[in-house]
Design brief:
Length: 368
């Protein structure tokens, strides 16, 4: 099966290429079939496999590739070697990209949402106030995954004033430097063709909160009602999770889309590089700071603070940058004993310095 050409429907539609074929070679010799996982549910998965001159869907058991590492279990978007006769996924091919978030567990585990993704589509509803901090959080995870982010402002028909819509797009572009921002309305069709053209090749993953209109958008891109749609509350623009599993859907214009359930919490997971790319202008300014380890708080010669004072950098951006860096450092400390010890030692030093300064201040008050 690994000799499939790019002209085969399986290859053309689902992204099989020479690189995956080379990784699959040892499994082809064992009589296995290449497959793309399109859905995972309770230890079983649906896969698409080549079938003569076409493609068919099959089901397989995940047990043979079970692992205690949550980042190594199979997920939607994975390429796999499947024993179709026995109905087993025997192995996963190496991933080229993976969208990972931290779980709410105190064990600080990572949860993989999608694999082998080329583009991460961040859906943000205009039915509610634009949350730029959440956009930046999603962007950090998207950049870290290895995918190219794309911000989609959904339900643009709810902002009838062109000037207001233009202002919202501009705000989103400020929060997403170097990233395309598209206003889209699945209800009217506005912008859907532009988005479809951007996703016409490769694999994309659709991310966002519940109520962001992801399922409606997925239906518009697929050209049919492949996902159920539920009404949202008028009071806050939120709704129940329409999508409960991550499904890989063929798009009518080409390419495939992984639709995901609405995400209430989006915790960072080892996303230092992703944060740096999300705040690329701050990283560039930091190169001109007087001190290499400048924290951009009150240090003399800080180019970042100078940019804020000059009105060239919004204070909100700097606050968001600091917040995400702190969160990422805390997570790293929980999962890295050495770093955790270093942070604890640094905290104790700061506490000691604080007590010393308070004592000095007390002495100066008593002895003016």
């Amino acid at each position: 099966m690994s000799h499939l050409t790019s002209a085969h429907p399986f290859s053309a539609r689902y992204g099989w290429d020479e690189g995956f074929a080379e990784a699959f070679t040892p499994y082809a010799a064992q009589g296995m079939s290449p497959a793309r996982i399109v859905r995972v549910d309770r230890g079983r998965c649906d896969v698409v496999v080549p079938d003569g001159d076409g493609v068919r869907t099959a089901s397989a058991d995940a047990a043979p590739v079970a692992t205690g590492d949550p980042l190594k279990i199979m997920c939607t978007g994975d390429w796999a070697a499947v024993d179709l006769e026995r109905g087993y996924v025997r192995a996963l091919l190496p991933r080229r990209s993976a969208f990972v978030r931290s779980t709410s567990s105190k064990r600080s585990e990572g949860q993989i949402l999608a694999a082998n993704v080329d583009q991460a589509v961040i859906a943000v509803s205009l039915a509610a106030e634009l949350d730029l901090g959440r956009v930046e959080r999603f962007l950090a995870l998207a950049w870290e995954s290895g995918a190219q982010p794309l911000v989609v402002l959904t339900k643009a028909d709810l902002v009838p004033d062109p000037g207001t819509l233009s202002h919202l797009v501009s705000d989103a572009e400020t929060a997403a430097p170097g990233v395309q921002v598209l206003p889209v309305s699945a209800a009217t069709g506005e912008g859907v063709d532009v988005l479809a053209a951007a996703l016409a090749s490769g694999t994309s993953v659709l991310l966002g909160q519940s109520g962001a209109g992801k399922s409606t958008l997925a239906n518009a891109l697929a050209g049919e009602d492949v996902q159920d749609v539920q009404a949202i509350r008028d009071s806050d623009g939120k709704g129940r999770h329409t999508t409960t599993t991550r499904d890989l859907l063929p798009l009518s214009w080409g390419g495939v889309l992984i639709d995901t359930p609405g995400l209430r919490g989006v915790g960072l997971w080892d996303a230092e590089d992703g944060v740096a790319r999300t705040f690329s202008e701050i990283e560039a300014l930091a190169g001109d700071c007087r001190f290499a380890d400048c924290g951009h708080h009150s240090e003399p010669g800080c180019a970042v603070l100078a940019a804020v004072d000059a009105g060239e950098l919004p204070p909100r951006r700097l606050d968001s940058y600091r917040k995400l860096l702190r969160e990422n450092a805390r997570l790293a400390a929980r999962t890295d004993a050495r770093l955790r010890a270093e942070m604890r030692r640094d905290w104790k030093q700061k506490q000691a310095l604080g007590r010393h300064m308070m004592e000095r201040k007390g002495r100066s008050v008593r002895n003016p």
